[in-house]
Amino acid sequence: MQKPPSLSKFLNFFAIIMILVYFVFGFFVIFSKSFDYVPKEIRFAFGIFLIAYGFFRAVRLYFKLRQQRYDYSDED
């Protein structure tokens, strides 16, 4: 069952926003002075994890959008 186009667009937009949140928060954790009470190694590891997860989500979204475009072009 396919989602309505408006819901699909909203979910894609939300996915892009979340990818940006992961990237920004990852860099924030690494470089911010707000987390000085956390050991530097832990901050760095957690920040890298968030950035890597954001990259993973971006790749998944890219392939999902590419498949949607391919499926849409097949319907014509």
Globally, the shape reads: elongated
What structural category do the secondary elements indicate? mainly alpha
SSE run: HH
The average pLDDT is 89
Report helical residue fraction.
over 70%
Question: What does this molecule look like?
Answer:
The protein has helices at about 5-30, 40-75. By secondary structure, it is mainly α. It has one domain (about 5-75). The longest helix is centred in the C-terminal third of the chain and has 36 residues, at about 40-75. It is elongated, with a radius of gyration of 17 Å. The mean pLDDT is about 90.
Write the layout of secondary structure elements.
Layout: H1 5-31, H2 40-75
How would you summarize this macromolecular structure in one to three sentences?
This protein has 2 helices and no strands. It has 76 residues and is mostly helical.
Characteristics:
single chain; 76 residues; mainly alpha; 2 helices; 0% strand; elongated
